[in-house]
Design goal:
Length: 417
């Protein structure tokens, strides 16, 4: 696949080969990752990258747009059909960019936005002080109920009434439960705020109908075609028709310049694939795998935040195990199991240490892993947690982890050296 690169830049070629090997031999459990099909690799490496284009189909700033118009229209129509949305913007380069477009479209600098606390599972682009969203807009946050560890809707409503935000945001990076979109929509209506749902993490589950859809309840929905959708590396926006012109204009020229046409092609394919029965089967399995892994970890004495999961991820509180997220992440990486350290609600540790790990099953499920594999992976995670510094144990587990990973050939057509 990289035969020209191999000839002209062997240093870089070898780095890509090393990463291919890592992806093949490892158990990938970063919750925002997936393995894309060959078609996405082809499209993202295609000649579409050569075309510079700004504007929207039929309203372009460069000549030679006939084919590009068709591709963007196809991506738009497929996104709308998949999610039953009235309008779609498929140009955002990422999920964060999509959120910035929405703010730019609907509110003014200095206006208030209300999002979920970052350390309770929210995302940087929902108003964090280190993100542009928190610098341009006044951000306030709602959190989780300390007992249930699920969204504290009363707190959300109280914050909405107190601060009268212009936008209320639902959606998270590390939240394992369904969100009551209808309830938040009612709160937003009560304070005359727009309701934005960021479904970046769960866009595949929603497309497959194994997770409630926010589309009927939200004014605007953002997402990524990357993570749980297993497709192009980029973002998108869905909305009711009334916001169409504003969202288009905010994306271009508001936040971005030219489109990434190779990604646009890959997005069109992503939205088509996500509507197939095969994809629905994979997403159904994702949910089963996440539940199985959660139960298997609980059986081994791990505590799950909220006690379980409704989606593709688990948030594991490691305090009962006497471990930090940093320590377990490192020990798991040593054996080829990739997870990320993650803050748990009201975490006493610093963000670079944390008391938890976030574990996702999308990537391994896309490779073909089933419930039995999840049971085995839970056993390996448990052994690593019990012996994080025992090199002999870790060597043995690394071999077992590799064996599980290699059961699922990744890109068998791509050569490896
Ligand atoms: C909820 C949520 N929104 C937005 C994003 C940002 O997406 P991107 O990395 O494409 O900017 C993420 C990324 O993890 C996310 O979890």
């Amino acid at each position: 696949m990289l035969k020209h690169l191999k000839e002209s830049d062997h240093i870089l070629y070898e780095m890509v080969q090393d990463e291919l090997l890592r992806q093949r031999q490892g158990i990938e459990m970063i919750a925002s990752e997936s393995f894309v099909p060959y078609e996405i690799l082809e499209l993202q490496g295609s000649i579409l990258t050569n075309k510079t284009m700004e504007g929207f189909p039929g309203r372009r700033y460069h000549a030679g747009h006939e084919v590009i118009d068709r591709i963007e229209t196809l991506a738009i129509e497929r996104a709308k059909a998949l999610y039953r949305a009235e309008h779609a913007v498929v140009q955002p380069h990422s999920g964060s960019q999509a959120n910035h477009s929405v703010y730019q479209a609907l509110i003014k600098p200095g206006d208030t936005i209300l999002g979920m606390r970052l350390d309770h599972g929210g995302h940087l682009s929902h108003g964090s002080s280190v993100n542009l969203s928190g610098k341009i807009y006044k951000s306030v946050f709602y959190g989780l109920n300390p007992e249930t560890e699920t969204i504290d809707y009363r707190d959300l409503e109280a914050k909405a009434l107190e601060h009268r935000p212009r936008i209320i945001i639902a959606g998270a990076s590390a939240y394992p439960r369904f969100i009551d979109y209808e309830r938040i929509a009612a709160i937003a209506r009560g304070v005359e705020a727009y309701f934005l749902v960021d479904m970046a993490h769960i866009a595949g589950l929603v497309a497959a109908g194994v997770h409630p859809t926010p589309v009927p309840f939200a004014d605007v929905v953002t997402g990524t075609t990357t993570k749980n959708l297993g497709g192009a590396r980029g973002g998108f926006i869905l909305s009711r028709g009334e916001y169409a012109a504003k969202l288009d204009k905010a994306t271009f020229p508001g936040v971005q310049g030219s489109m990434h046409m190779h990604i646009m092609g890959a997005k069109a394919f992503t939205f088509m694939r996500a509507g197939t029965d095969e994809f629905k089967g994979v997403m159904t399995q994702v949910v089963k795998n996440a539940r199985t892994l959660g139960e298997a970890l609980k059986d081994r004495g791990f505590r799950l935040v909220t006690g379980g999961t409704d989606n593709h991820l688990l948030l594991v509180d490691l305090r009962p195990k006497g471990l930090t997220g940093e320590k377990l992440e490192k020990a798991l990486e040593r054996v080829g199991i990739t997870v990320n350290k993650n803050m748990i609600p009201n975490d006493p540790e610093k963000p670079m240490v944390t008391s938890g790990v976030r574990i996702g099953v999308t990537a391994m499920t896309m490779k073909g892993a089933l419930e039995g594999d999840m049971q085995k992976i839970a056993g390996l995670i448990d052994e690593v947690a019990r012996h994080p510094q025992d090199e002999t144990v870790l060597d043995r587990i690394a071999a077992e982890a590799r064996e599980i990973a290699l059961k699922f050939p990744l890109y068998p057509g791509i050569e490896e050296e």
